[in-house]
Amino acid sequence: MGFNKKTNIDKNSYGYKLNYKTLKKTTTMSKLLLALLTGLFLFSLTACDDDKNSYHPNTIITKAFESKFPHASKAIWKLKKNYSVAKFVNNGCEINAWFDQNGLLYMTKTEYESLDNIPDATVREAFNNSIYNKWKVEDVDYIERLNIEGIYIIEVEQGEKELDLIFTKNGILVKAIPDDNDDEYEDYIPNVKIQTVIELVKIKYPNAQIIETDVEDGFIEIEIIENNIVKEVVYDNTNSWINTNYEVKKTDVEEIVLTTIKNEYKNHKIDDIEKYETPTGTYYVFELEKGEHEFKIKVNLKGEIIR
Fold this sequence. Notes:
disordered N terminus
């Protein structure tokens, strides 16, 4: 009886130790198995991610790319907004090129390490002679687009201020705008839907350079440079010309127009003057200021205020 009781106790004790070792061994194996499964899962995610980023365009696009950039190397392709975008190295510069699905090249962005490396000395000279020549140059890119003049975008910084300076190839500073940290410049891709308007602008201003396009509130805005003057040409959605407007100096305004301003608003300061050319006539828009009060006045070429 005692023997059986002791035996039972030893068996229970032995059984407890056996179960503990088995449990510990099983737990260790489970951890190894879990680690293995986790590794396989992460590997599969990475593989899927690699597959996602490994985009290969059709042969029409690749042939167009090889024809346009025969010396390109390290090309990586991505699909963005229905464009096949190649990122590659050419002549020591990193370039991004946007092709449509028919192999038509819409835009390229060429990155330069500094102003000293750009091929257009006139841009370098223009920057050095500008009011921004003491600002720190962070980045220099050259944007070339279909049917639109190429532009340099020089990113500069002074303190907490960051600006993008837009220069033409012949050194005209078009504008200075806040830097939006968009280094892809996808907003600069030409809008395929307004190519007809671009052709109309070329006919209307054959000696002008088209530098930017925009579609806003149903109107098509084409920015041009004519005789070194930056102008905005506006069309509606029926491709009809609405106006061409641009800033002018006081010395460029007819005396009869200035006389009206002097007589009617002699105690006001002229802040800005814009000239508008329209199908029905030409007029000026004066931005006037008196104290904290600011307003705009339209005056036609006869010196008449347009209400």
